[in-house]
Amino acid sequence: MYIPYTVCSDSTYSPSARRGKHKIFIGMAPGVGKTYKMLDEATRLKRDGIDVVIGWLETHGRPETNAKAEGLEVISRKKIEWSGLTFTEMDTDAIIARQPQLVLIDELAHTNVPGADRNRRYLDIEAILAANIDVYSTVNIQHLESLSTQVTQMTGLVVRECIPDSLLEAADQVVVVDVTPETLEERLLEGKIYPTKKIEQSVQNLFQRSNLVVLRELALRQVADNIEKKEIQQAARLNSNSKSVSANVCCIHERILVCVSCEPNSIRLIQRGALLADYMNAQLYVLFVNNPDHLLTKVETLHIEMCKQICQKFKGEFLQLSSHNVVEEIAHVAKLYRITQVILGQTHRSQWQILFRGSLINQLVRSLHHIDIHVISSEK
To answer: What 3-state DSSP class applies to 250?
Structure first.
């Protein structure tokens, strides 16, 4: 099963104007078909007249993958002498000098041998993209920096080579190449992934059923998270000058918004929101809306700065805005960031203020549809 990161068809191709486009094929483990899928697309593009070359390919001797690579030009590898031994690495300079439209590069997380121009392969890819050459690359989910510790804790596998999360975020397209754990186990036992002598060791380590289930879930969830993140960023750009927010995209995960003020209980609200976010594995946002007619005192400024620091301590995003209409601004942020839970503190407004202007909570209930609102008592 192939799950595209964007709605673009896998068969379409449009060269970039100034900088190369990067498409990443990601999977839960070796053998799911990342390299084969990359080669399959590349051969179709070559038939359509696109200039495609292989910059670095690792087929691990798999006959089907080797066959799929036939007919594609290969850029010769660069020899590097180190500690009296000769190693080969991808020749980035030769690729840039060749100037193909598209280059295929396996093993995105690879660490280059000492003496290479760059110490990591993803830095080589960055240089190629900067030269206006499109890149197709492959990687397994456990090599993502933010997940490496989690992978080790859940599977016992130590990840030695990691790539920054920003690579996935910056990629123009990410494709999950997915098969069921059962299918992957069958491929392994049939000798389609590793030679026979390595099968037993693989079954006892990475290819345990429990490990494959965990890695598959991480791969699918990570790409889903990236889809949401990019769509939110796009929505923010489209609506930066407008209060009209599109709600056409479904929300996959919970998102917590804590609304703070200059009241002392704001710290407790953030802590409560952080606990909820941790429990629900949700993104945390903290919002402070100040009336532009009110000039913050030194004490209030320090209080808001403390709120910001505590928010960042819990790995949340702090938003500080200015508006005469607090309810409207909260509603706008909630829709823009597709918030699912809002946390507020009890207001200290008098009965007369509520009578003439209405309750802040009641106004938000009318404005925020399908969003849960938590009101935290200021007495506790």
So the answer is: coil
Identify the bridge partners of residue 53 per DSSP, sorted by sequence position: 73, 103
In the DSSP assignment, the letter for residue 318 is: E
Judge contact between 309 and 302, C-beta under 8 A.
no
Place of tokens 């500080």: 320
SS (H, E, C) 60-112: CCCHHHHHHHCCCEECCCEEEEECCEEEEECCHHHHHHHCCCEEEECCCCCEC
pTM of the predicted model over 0.90: no
| Phi then psi dihedrals of residue 147, to 5 deg | -105, -10
Minimal CA–CA distance to 288: which of 252, 250, 314, 317?
317
In whole angstroms, what is the distance from residue 227 CA to residue 239 CA?
A: 18
CA 44 → CA 6, 40, 64, 139, 291, distances in Å?
A: 20, 7, 16, 22, 58
Average pLDDT over every residue of 43-51: 95
Q: What is the pLDDT of residue 149?
A: 81
Pinpoint the alpha helices (H) of the chain.
34-47, 63-69, 92-98, 121-130, 145-155, 165-170, 181-189, 196-204, 209-238, 266-280, 298-313, 326-336, 351-357, 360-367
Structure tokens at 24: 């990443």
pLDDT digits (tens, 9 = 90+) for 324-362: 888 889 988 988 888 888 998 876 554 434 333 446 667
Bridge partners of residue 376, in order along the sequence? 345
Which pairs count as long-range contacts for 146-151, CB under 8 Å and 24+ apart, including other chains?
147/218, 147/222, 150/218, 151/214, 151/215, 151/218
> What domains can you pick out in the chain, each with its CATH number?
2-234 (3.40.50.300), 255-376 (3.40.50.620)
Instruction: Report pLDDT digits (tens) over 209-223.
Output: 777 777 887 787 777
Q: Is 26 helix (H, G, I), strand (E, B) or coil?
A: strand
Rounded distance, CA 308 to CA 138, Å?
38
Q: Which tens digits make up the pLDDT trace of 212-268? A: 777 887 787 777 776 666 666 666 666 555 544 444 444 556 789 999 998 888 999
